[in-house]
Amino acid sequence: MKTATDPAPAKRSRAAAAAAAAGTATGQAKAHDVVLKVRDLAVDIRTHRGTVRAVNSVAFEARAGETLALLGESGCGKSMTAKALAGIMDPVCDLADGEINLNGTDLAALTPKQRLKFAGPELGIVFQDALTALNPVYTVGTQLGEAFRIHRGLSAKEARVEAIDLMKRVGIPEPESRVNSYPHQFSGGMRQRILIAMAVALNPRLLIADEPTTALDVTVQAQIMQLLRKLREEGQMAVILITHDLAVVAEEADSVAVMYAGNVVESGPVFEVFADPRHPYTKGLLESVPVHLERGAQLKSIAGSPPELHDIPAGCVYQSRCPLVQEICCAERPALRPVSGAGTGPVGGAVTGLGAAVTGSALNVPSGNEPRPARAAACHFSEEINNV
Amino acid sequence: MSEPLLKIDGLTKTFHVAKSASGNTRLKALDGISLTVGRGETLGLVGESGCGKSTLARTLMMLETPDEGAVSFEGTNPFGLRGKELLSWRRRVQMVFQDPFASLNARMNAGDIITEPWATHRGLYPTSREREARVRELLHMVGLRPSDACKSPQEFSGGQRQRIGIARALALNPDVIILDEPVSALDLSVQAQVLNLLNELQQELGVSYIFISHDLTVVRHVADRVAVMYLGRIIETGATEEVFDHPRHPYTAALMSASPKLDVSGAKQDRIVLEGELPSPLDPPSGCRFRTRCWQAQDICSEVAPEPQVLSALGTRHVAECHFPLDSIKGLKATSASVPIATAPATASAP
To answer: How would DSSP label each residue in B246-307?
Structure first.
């Protein structure tokens, strides 16, 4: 961790201490403060076939020291959500609606210039493809030091020292000599470490990791996930992990938001959601994974494929593939509403949170006494899932 | 499987590359690979990127010529064939590629893509009526509509494109299909559809699969036997359940352990996290290739390359190349007590 020149860690540790004090009631020393609260997020893309809505009224919250997984298949809007949070959308995309509340500041209301101040000290992002995310013509030392030069006004020499420090922190061997290497001289796993180092350079409160291990082998993936966990705990960061891998979610995340065709269709604590899904899509996904099955046995697949963005039906987004579909599903889009698990898991906190959640903003919970995130699902028939 | 359909013995392939850091210009992509594939069997081939999986696939497709070693396909060596015999051999081994977007020609329609192999193998369906009937049949087999034959690849989703790729491979009625990461570019829900399709086709046609994948969950589901590759060698092979549940080679154990598991019980498992990455195949370690990352490496491991040992615990043939194979009965669980978990041990660090 960095020295006293940085006011952020001091502030953070106060917050962590306060949270720890609050958390003693539940016997947990980890901070669970809500760092990021997203409400009604909507992103439009202007295409030659008209404007399409890629992200539609997405809501979730991320808590310090915890990992929230955004889970979904390709094209479901999870990466678009991440880009909207970070303010790095393509020029053809518009933030149509919503509030991105990061520690009391609504990022959605800021101008791009004002946002620059938040990129780095408050919010870091790790991209999937480390080779394209790094600039091939600068040494990694220059790229790692950039954050310090811009945000802290350090000289090139001082920034280099910080860069070496960072490389040590993310486990790159021989940082003193490798600081002058170029991205192509590193292996895939090491490049991903460099990318992570860049994202956590200024100890952000929120780290967005967009498919950080998809391009890596499993043994390296395990290393990177271990590193992310370590950094999360050290800095009490809130981590948003974007992935399509259910197993990664089950192992790494505390809570999950399942996205489909631009909408969050189900959210809640990971083990509750996975043990007892309340949306037919979540259930279908879980059943598509070939585990605990006899070899060669028929997998339960979801028929069809996700709708095209310019062709999303009026009612429920999942209607064309849903086994429970009825007339109301085609007529009315179900809102993300609180659901209770089937008596599994520690739902006590969730139930107390439900009352607050029902009133309008689905995930708006009273501050101070932070209950566990409630479970929610966007389905007219979420109580009948088990009959599928 | 009494007489294997395909038998590979000591296959070696060296590439000559521009000078590496160590001055070595010879890259041994395959170093003494021995394998068998039975009729109607699925062999899973797993390993990290750069371990030689795809080179092996390309060599079996005769896209590469091996330096040494013997390939026997029903008793004949395909590399000794010429002319018509070679052509008829090529019909019998087909391939499905990983990327369903890059592996289909965007300027041809689906029907043309599926029928193109018959332009080379003219004798197979000589009349246009036969060809048309066969295209309809193939499309039906892979779950597409006859009208889809006129569509171009762009009009299909990823899963549908992979179905076209499978139909193209089936067009020549092959005996072996090499599936190079056939589902890794697909979304989970679509992946299950394609795996089901492959399974149905195998039961219907009795075709053998060589299924290359880095997704161990998928391999476990489809494969009868598994071969684990590391730096150009097969370090462990055996029946799928044997290898997955009782890995004998430390690398296999680490690979299984590193693969994330969908366990909804909430129990976070201990995990072997290997240090370092795959060494460069240009400069493989002396002795055992895995020793630089192995937590139980000893002096002998750097001096002597381990020979394949037959370790048949449960009546099936299980081969591993290790001086200190893991305990078979207890497998990973027993050794994990003595293996430093998660915090990788000092012995596993690079030399």
So the answer is: S--SHHHHHHHHHS----TT-PPPP-----S-PPPTTSPPSSSTTGGG-TT--HHHHHSPPP
Q: Is residue B129 part of a domain?
A: yes
Whether residues B221 and A302 touch (CB distance < 8 A) is answered with: no
Distance CA B298, CA B290 (A): 12
Residue B265 in this model has a pLDDT that exceeds 70? no
B280 and B323 co-located in one domain? yes
**Backbone dihedral region for residue B273 (phi beyond 0: left; psi -120 to 50: alpha; all else: beta):** beta
- Calculate how close chain B gets to A343, using CA atoms only, in Å: 15
DSSP at A378: -
List CB contacts (< 8 A) between B266 and chain A: 271
Residue B350 resides in a domain: no
The Cα B186–Cα B190 span in angstroms is 6
The answer to whether B80 faces chain A, any CB pair under 8 Å, is no
B201 and B295 inside one domain: no
B180 and B299 belong to one structural domain:
no
What are residue B239's DSSP bridge partners? B225
Tell me how far apart the alpha carbons of residues A55 and A143 are, in angstroms, rounded to a whole number: 32
Phi and psi at residue A30, in whole multiples of 5°?
-80, 150
What residues have CB less than 8 Å from A287, skipping those under 6 apart?
Answer: A299, A300, B192
User: How many domains does one find in chain B?
Assistant: 2
Chain A: residue whose CA lies nearest to B198: A296
The answer to whether A242 touches A82, Cβ cutoff 8 Å, is: yes
CB pairs under 8 A between A and B: 126
- Give the residue from chain A lying closest to B222, CA to CA: A296
Is B237 within 8 Å of B309 (Cβ atoms)?
no
Q: Domain containing B31: what range?
A: 6-223
Over the stretch A311-370, which tens digit does the pLDDT of each residue have? 888 899 999 999 889 999 999 999 998 987 654 433 333 333 333 333 333 344 334 445
Q: Which band of pLDDT confidence, cut at 50, 70 and 90, is reported for residue A307?
A: confident
Neighboring chain A residues of B343 at a CB cutoff of 8 Å: none
- pTM score: 0.82
User: Within an 8 Å CB–CB cutoff, is residue B222 touching chain A?
Assistant: yes
Q: Which of B49, B157, B221, B225 to mutate to test the interface with A (most CBs of A within 10 A)?
A: B221
Rounded distance between C-alpha atoms, residue A53 and residue B292, angstroms: 51
B147: which 2 tokens? 């009208």
Q: Could you tell me which residues come within 8 angstroms of residue B200 by beta carbon, excluding any fewer than 6 positions away?
A: none
Q: What is the mean pLDDT of residues B218-247?
A: 92
What the block records as the tokens of A289 is 């994974």
The per-residue pLDDT for B261 is: 84
Q: Classify residue A90 by burial, with Cβ atoms within 10 Å: 0-12, 13-18, 19+.
A: exposed
Contacts of A221 in chain B (CB under 8 A): 258, 260
Share of chain B above pLDDT 90, in %: 54
